[in-house]
């Protein structure tokens, strides 16, 4: 039933009619309408929602006949009871050996004109499909329910005969083929070969295309030529046990695909750039590490090793960004890695196990990169100065509000040296922190002795409204 309802727009459109799916009530007292579809090709009969409506047994004779006699049932004269002439028809729904319900097909005849070739082809195809529903051949068994929008009747329709030759081409279908480069007539042409010649001039025959374009199996494919992309969907018509031909729905998806491709390449490019930046930073870090190993002067070596860590923490941000399609990262991930890195460089006798309390959540990369850097410096200071020679607690406490992020890095170590003043401090670490927090992030920064001993660094960073 679900696969029927996911695909019966086709039947409604070809019929220019409303469809209502009725299933019998368990207790046999009547019918309930479980689904409804209006045509996009013509006027509807039902302006109201029918789903959920109950019809008592005997109230709708056509339903009973289709159900009891297992056949399509058509009313002779139009029904005028709703004020417009409506032709009613009922189609039993069959799946394997079971009959599941009845489709009521109602055509609003008020706008019926002398039928054109297009209308005649549609109606003939509709009646073939209806026959297939009654015989349990449509929707196709095993076919995935159609989830993405596949072509509709109004997008373009071709009807093929048994040999795969086009017997009718709707104006839209013809236009699509013109855009693919067809100069000759489509009617009378063998669709498979014609399409292959247009789209795969110098390439080996595409098997899937040949199957779709010959209408032999219910499948979809996409072809491209001269910058035009066209989606094809084949619906084999199998009536009375024999293949009588096929419908091929055609949709020009050039614009759609172009936009998708653009989006995809933009995302992929950004991710690739982050990946390369990360690689380059890791190379820089490796070079510095090599140089540090060669240095005899301990101070020089320490300085280089610290540079390695600074570069490393930026690389972490780029690595994380290279995995996400957006320019946003889950900063908790990054913070935890930076924190773990600090734990590793702490003096072994200090036994510092840094911890994060609270969550940063998702941050934009403009904030994440400097913040990762800042965090590295502050944690580094805590293990290098505060907790250099004794065990202690090191915590990163985060609280995130709608418009600001508050972060406290606190240690219970030896505390700041006497006469310490942030503004007059000229060492590099805190200068970096100040520049990034105040300059780059427009935030606030304080470093104070912690109550109960140690040091507490407080950051207040405004978050831009999303
Ligand atoms: N958590 C802390 N506990 C104790 N003292 C600290 C702490 N953080 C900073 N300090 C003091 O502030 C000074 C300046 O820190 P800053 O990070 O700017 O320089 P540094 O760590 O000495 O060198 P680097 O430029 O390599 O970071 C440190 O030398 C230290 O005396
Ligand atoms: Mg420092």
Automatic annotation (TrEMBL):
<dbReference type="InterPro" id="IPR022066">
    <property type="entry name" value="PdtaS_GAF"/>
</dbReference>
<dbReference type="Pfam" id="PF07568">
    <property type="entry name" value="HisKA_2"/>
</dbReference>
<dbReference type="InterPro" id="IPR013656">
    <property type="entry name" value="PAS_4"/>
</dbReference>
<dbReference type="InterPro" id="IPR035965">
    <property type="entry name" value="PAS-like_dom_sf"/>
</dbReference>
<keyword id="KW-0808">Transferase</keyword>
<dbReference type="Pfam" id="PF12282">
    <property type="entry name" value="GAF_PdtaS"/>
</dbReference>
<keyword id="KW-0597">Phosphoprotein</keyword>
<keyword id="KW-0418">Kinase</keyword>
<dbReference type="GO" id="GO:0004673">
    <property type="term" value="F:protein histidine kinase activity"/>
</dbReference>
<dbReference type="InterPro" id="IPR038424">
    <property type="entry name" value="H_kinase_PdtaS_GAF_sf"/>
</dbReference>
<dbReference type="InterPro" id="IPR003594">
    <property type="entry name" value="HATPase_dom"/>
</dbReference>
<dbReference type="InterPro" id="IPR011495">
    <property type="entry name" value="Sig_transdc_His_kin_sub2_dim/P"/>
</dbReference>
<dbReference type="GO" id="GO:0005524">
    <property type="term" value="F:ATP binding"/>
</dbReference>
<dbReference type="Pfam" id="PF02518">
    <property type="entry name" value="HATPase_c"/>
</dbReference>
<dbReference type="InterPro" id="IPR005467">
    <property type="entry name" value="His_kinase_dom"/>
</dbReference>
<keyword id="KW-0547">Nucleotide-binding</keyword>
<keyword id="KW-0067">ATP-binding</keyword>
<dbReference type="InterPro" id="IPR036890">
    <property type="entry name" value="HATPase_C_sf"/>
</dbReference>
<feature type="domain" description="Histidine kinase">
    <location>
        <begin position="272"/>
        <end position="465"/>
    </location>
</feature>
<protein>
    <recommendedName>
        <fullName>histidine kinase</fullName>
        <ecNumber>2.7.13.3</ecNumber>
    </recommendedName>
</protein>
<dbReference type="Pfam" id="PF08448">
    <property type="entry name" value="PAS_4"/>
</dbReference>
